[in-house]
Amino acid sequence: MSSPTVVPQTAGPAAATPPPRRLLLVTGSLGEGHHAAARAVEERARQVWPGVEVVWTETLDGMGRHTPRVFRAVYSACIRRLPWLYELYLWLLWNAPPFRAGTRAIIGAWSGRGLAVALARHAPDLVVATFPEGITGLGWLRRHGRLTVPAVALIVDPAPHPLWADPALDLHLVSTEAALPLLERAAPGARVRVAGLPVAARFVPPTATEPADEPGPADRPPLAYVSFGSMAFGDLGAACSAVLDAGADVLVSCSRDAAVRRRLSRLARAHPRGERMRVVDWIEDPATATGGCDLVVTNAGGATAAEALACARPLLIFAPIAGHGRANAALLAQAGLATVCPGPAALAAAVAELMEPRCRAERQRHLRAFVAAADLAADVAALAALTAGRHVARAPRVRAQDALFLHAATPRVPQQIGARIVIEDPARRDDWPEYLAELVRRRVPQIGLLRRRLARPRPGLPLHWVDGEDVDPARHIQPRMVEIGPGGDQPSWDDAVTAFFAAPVDPVRTGWELQVARDRAAGHVAVLAKVHHALGDGLAVTDALVRLLADEESVRRAAPGAAADPAPSTVTGPRAGAVVRAAGRAATIARGVASLALAGPAGASPLTGEVTGPGHRRVSVRLDGAQVRAKARAHGVGTTVLLLAVVADTLHTLLAERRPPTAVPATVRAMVPMTTRTSAAVHSRAPGNRTAAVSIDLPTGPMPARERIAHVARAVADGSSAGQPEATAAVLNLLGLLPGRLQALAVRQVYGRRFFHLLASVMPGVRRPLHCRGGLVAEVYPVLPLADGVALAVGALNWGRTTGIGITADPGIIGEIEEIPGRIQVSLRRM
């Protein structure tokens, strides 16, 4: 077993490192201790990093609407009524490796997906977690390549357990040296540092002149602060009675529990010294209360214990609660920081010993020395020097949806997507490649899709990603800027894009490449980007490029476009709802498979044939976005339907005018990707392909424009309602279960001219103005790949005031490709 790496606290690197701008605190509402620790971190962060933006996220809220209430109910029931079950749970975590691994995997995946939403929404530079389920979820995200910033686990309790630690995280903070062996056992290989107590700065020992730190007069009994946490577990009455019996006064919090308040009031009336007991519903100022008492009695060793130690108050742990309470008590006693009192008699004896002022003063001096040895502010400041991802346990496997494009790629039809991103540059600067290199150096480490490369495939082993931490701009950026226009390197933008995409991108060596082209006369530059399709779909690639290039920080932190959230289920009851949803999804998939099967093979088409090679021709056309939207509204359809109808009309005119004349097919089978991403889910920003597809027969015969649009609208609606998107996603998941060679063979059988003639995709983009280096990002033209035997692909992207159309075609089959942009504009006018 490897031991944890004990990291010394050093101020030098932190002082020389830029502070984080955004801090995400991951906490949870099981008691108040996790929130108290998060408040302590926020307080120190604002102290050492002025101007830092601090955001909290509640782990349980992200695990489902009813999860917080259920977790609290189960936890409370176990501690109050089934302590043996909670003890068994922790014993299994420590001593049964399969149980520990299974629990980590389930909770990590469950909480990790919710945390990924918070990460995508807030784009933090640093994450600090104070809640076990949050720590486990962050570890799951790191292992799956979804956590790219430094992540720290702050262990709130003195004694960590397996869900409080994960070697995939970058650092663990514990409060005592005695915790190190436990952390070693919980997470072999984890990095750990002993840090200050996770309490607010107001929790400090009273000055030496205050009565609480001096032997008091004989007529003033010591004051004991009795608190059993925010949920009031345990027998508060027995603790208060023992303290009163020993001769001390009592200040006790009933934690806003009316039943506990009634029991304590009865005790005050019945006990001979009951008038010396003050009962309050809640301590509004715990720092003053803790610092003003002479000793503290608690039963869990959590936040109350940490606050007592920070105030150098002698700590007595009475009848510790099951599980973590007993572990905390044992560790604090081992470290000489607390006295464990199993029952009332032991508590009364411990209080009686502390009745002697000099005994209390000796304990306080020992605790002062312990507190003075650590500084939480310095520990938080040192987090700025952390580097993310040094301890990822394993590389994420390639999902079936992504492997599709690795298996479909051939020398003749490389699977790469991308864009031409046009930027206004009236200054006509010559250093754009250098500027782009600096953006890559600074921003790519925070963009998961652009950090990824394919691990070199090994026979018999699954495909995996490599998450590259050190990005070399020279590997991804072509150093020379291409000049556009007469006398330049390329006569037109389309020629420049065609030449750039002629050399396929290598998913192992680079994964993606960029080049700058310039039309000096027009004052425009364009970033040409090509990305291997396995890295992501159109939305993911658009998002990654926006985050790389945009000046607007707010846009870089939010997904540029996504589909709407699915409608919430109306079924009540978690188990019944899950069963109904699963049955409904199975039925939808079955309908979708039947629909695709009934559609049958695509048949022959003038758009298919033997693709001649990777040098496909790329052309583009600029449409007025407002005009596209207005025409779609006039016909009562969305822009996707309208643009598909435009494509169908364009093909009708193109094929009808071929020489020699050929019969124009009544329909052309188009494969239309449909995103499964949502605006609120992590999928809106996640790398990879999260698209399904609808198979649509586009009407290419002669017909009026209104009829053609109505035909396309029905085809899209029928394919979607028939469950085709769900069916294609399910089929891909099944293919992912096959061995690599069988998977590749199956993909090549279904992804090509046998089942479709045309690829067509309409993607959302960004409507608000964006800038790069101060210049407006004026237009974006997508670039799509072909498929085996499929000679035409059309992509549309709505961007600002324009709709950019990118067309890829094999000139040996589609000889009229240069005519297509003009025909699209004419068809749009006919609409």
Automatic annotation (TrEMBL):
Residues 400-596 form the O-acyltransferase WSD1-like N-terminal domain. It comes from the Bacteria. SUPFAM superfamilies: UDP-Glycosyltransferase/glycogen phosphorylase. PANTHER family: MONOGALACTOSYLDIACYLGLYCEROL SYNTHASE, MONOGALACTOSYLDIACYLGLYCEROL SYNTHASE 1, CHLOROPLASTIC. The keyword Glycosyltransferase applies. Residues 34-199 form the Diacylglycerol glucosyltransferase N-terminal domain. InterPro entries: Diacylglyc_glucosyltr_N, Glycosyltransf_28_UgtP, O-acyltransferase_WSD1_C, O-acyltransferase_WSD1_N. Belongs to the glycosyltransferase 28 family. Keywords: Glycosyltransferase, Transferase. Pfam families: MGDG_synth (PF06925), WS_DGAT_C (PF06974), WS_DGAT_cat (PF03007). Residues 688-831 form the O-acyltransferase WSD1 C-terminal domain. This is Wax ester/triacylglycerol synthase domain-containing protein. The keyword NADP does not apply.
